[in-house]
Amino acid sequence: MPASVGFLAMFLLYYLYNSRTGCTFFTWLQKVLHIPIKYVPFTNQQKNYALITAVEMVSLLWTFYLVLLFAYDKELLGDQHPVTYFIAFGSLLWSAFLFRDLLKLQNLGYAIRYSIPTVIILWNFVEILGRWNILNEIWVKPQEYWLELTLIFIVFALLTVVSLFEKGRQSKVDN
What we know:
Elements: H1 5-17, H2 24-32, H3 49-72, H4 82-103, H5 108-131, H6 146-174
Helix pairs in contact: 1-3, 3-5, 4-5
């Protein structure tokens, strides 16, 4: 996995220099680095939301997996290094800002797509807390977390019902 850093760098450079992604982080980075990007407005027909969401998810997971892999490496930093603390609490703060913005979204589909990177970034904090033995992770002993697992199932069931209701309501509006 560490050998894939070069490929990830090319992947991220492509999105940084050759496209208008709509990603808040890339837009901010393009402004800070003064990278001129030709603004071409997208229509809804041109956007493949499933592909956009998949690429964002894979690139974030990949990036943060590598960040944590290098941060945990005792030869480089180690899990008690100040940089690891910065990664942990920086991820917590960043996810808090993303969550604040997430609460303002009105479109359910966009909110779900926005929540994926929010949770991935928050998960860095959770992952590091587990590494520091502060949290006992739920998947190690799931029988001890029956209440939490039940609540997660209920939330997923409610989200499914709300999504189906929203789709049915949208169909009635369109007709």
